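Researcher: Let's continue the batch. This sequence belongs to Flavohemoprotein, and it's 426 residues. Same format as the previous ones, please.
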Amino acid sequence: MSVSKVSEKNTWQEVLETVKALDPSKLEIIKATLPIVKEHGEAITKHFYKRMFKQHPELLNIFNQTHQITGHQPKALANAVYGAAANIEDFTQIMPVLERIGEKHRSLQIKPEHYPIVGENLLAAIKEVLGDAATPEIIDAWADAYEVISDVFIRMEDRMYKTTETKPGGWAGFRDFVVDKKVKESDVITSFYLKPKDGKQIANFIPGQYITVKLDSENEKFTHLRQYSLSDRPGLDYYRISVKREDHKDGEIPAGIVSSNLHAHVNEGDIIQITAPAGDFYLDLDSELPLVLISGGVGLTPMMCMLNTTAKEKPDRKIYFIHAAVNSKLHAFKNHVNDLTEDNKNVRSFVVYEKPTEEDIEMKSYDKVGFINLEWLQEILSTKDADFYFCGPEPFMRVVNKSLKQWGIPEERIHYEFFGSFGSLD
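Model: Same format as before. Here are the structure tokens for Flavohemoprotein:
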């Protein structure tokens, strides 16, 4: 972990210590009503979003509407509300989660004025979903609880904004970047090399972090914000994002508005607005243990950043780079990883194809057919005394996480990024 991150955590510890405590009588009400709020959490948050967007349609410029359709966002908020309330006596117990939410909020430019709007509509949603069960005393207690929780985030995010804006190359809000290069990496993934329009310095970041891209289009009523992992190492004069085109899926999930627009309409020389790098999923730059990077699909983007950084800055550190894809047509950065592996004796790379093409079979361009499993990991890794990082679709991550735990890898050496605040892969 970097020194700056340790410093930030110490600062946030000070913030938490200044937060006012909830009145004991209201704390008892919160504890007593936690089970019912948990039981009806998703119903409350789904109603909350409908209510809030009706009252404040301008907030549609911030929230990801695809996540509303899939149910990811209501579920994430329900988990966050319950988790924060359950730990309201001691927020230090959930510091990593608070950091994760705060980083998301800072990247999306959530500001103090948004919290009263959320609170008003969340309390109303609780009352409207629970009906007579939500007595005035219960609503009053939850109103005070929300004030305490929102105070935590406002204070923490204020520190985050100030740190981001004052660091070398940092900035406030959205900044104009020029698409210096647009490179097709596979049939569905394209990289965008972004350089600051003003030609000034850009902020450093930790491998694994992301930026938020803002899309304003004449064909869209609202602004769309999306977060993309940085896929090349820090210290360069550009940021690189590698975006998967999200096509229409069966059911009600539409094609990705931002990813489709980037692929089809954003070209070299165009301007993209982004926020400064953020995120709590990042590489421990100080560790000397072997590094195991495991990715599935477009989950390889933060892994590429970690790989490039470690190979450059710590060429003596042993690296295992494992990537799973459907086949070579959907496999991005394959040549780059092969070249890096050939040039560095401490890097070993492995490829898993679910459905290899005839050409893949003929060329023997993979190491395993099917899926990653524990038995295979034990075959290819010379040690389990290593740091493990993985990213990919949720089912993929569940399998990897379960395999590592079955192998006895300590929790502190297992790192992944999970959508949804208080969610987990267990």
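Researcher: Any comment?
Model: Residues 3-166 form a domain with the Globin-like fold (CATH 1.10.490.10).
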